[in-house]
Amino acid sequence: MHQLEMSDLPYHHDWKPQFETSLGLQVKWFGRWGDDPDWSIEPSRLASDLICFFYLENGLATAIVNGVSMPLQPGELIVLRGGDVFSFTQDQSRPQMSLSACLSLNRDDKSNVLLQLAYERHYRLDDRKTYEQRFVDVLKVLESESRWRNLHVTSALFQWLAELQEALDPDPGTAEGNPKTIHHVLTAQKWIQQRMGEDLSIADWANACGLNVDYFSRLFKAHTGMPPKAWLIEAKLQRASRLLAYPDRTVEDIAEDCGFNCAFHFSRSFKTRFGLAPANYRRVCQVRGFVDP
Length: 293
Fold this sequence. Notes:
By secondary structure, the protein is α+β, with helices and mostly antiparallel strands. It folds into two domains: 23-173, Regulatory protein AraC (Jelly Rolls); 178-288, Homeodomain-like (Arc Repressor Mutant, subunit A, Orthogonal Bundle), CATH 1.10.10. The protein contains ten helices and nine strands. The strands form two sheets. A five-stranded antiparallel β-sheet has the order 1-8-3-6-9, with helices on one face. A hairpin with a 2-residue loop joins strand 4 and strand 5 (68-72). Helix 1 runs antiparallel to helix 2. The longest helix is centred in the middle third of the chain and has 20 residues, at 149-168. It is globular and about 75 Å long. Mean pLDDT is 84; it is low at 174-179.
């Protein structure tokens, strides 16, 4: 009789997996901040591949996203998408406490798949207690030193994220039918950021992305909340504000480097956006210690 070798035995689980995933979760920050009367966030732009969930736990705060002001009450949450320009202030008599998470969720070769979902901008969560508890669960395991910390953190993060998606229930949107759309926008932002100093039209920009101007403009606004021209001007001014931190750079040099052909037009646009002319903005930064003397 033939003797069965170990290599001849069938595998008990030699069938298609019941479930498998290739999700890649990257968290930029995850934390609780507040209880500081001086807290605020100056105008900033969220990186193009990220999404941020900002939840107000206590106090009163106001978010300004792409020029739109949104007062926040405890239990309310706003969603920031890649490319958004935002700032936050608070009622100093009622200092805010917030839970804020910024992340990307990649699948296979697709960039942040959360950006393909049509979130509303502003939500009120019905079950505050559960959301806050799930958030705290993640904070606890992030601080742990367990041998299995990575598994615990991953588990807590996905439970928090899954329950948040159930609560927000975002519409799949048009991006679900065409996953390449968010890739077009991310590529467009990266392409133009590398060419800020060049004299390029929106048509040049659209052409570089292989799209006609009308479709490019609709697509860009749908994913960033801003038309391409407004987004580009804002990006140039934000870059200029950072370059003013270098005292060896003249205002004229910075204007040219950011794609403004006329220094006067640059100064006027900068003052409209930040409330100060470039030279005055630099002096204020020096006084506050943002620029080395």
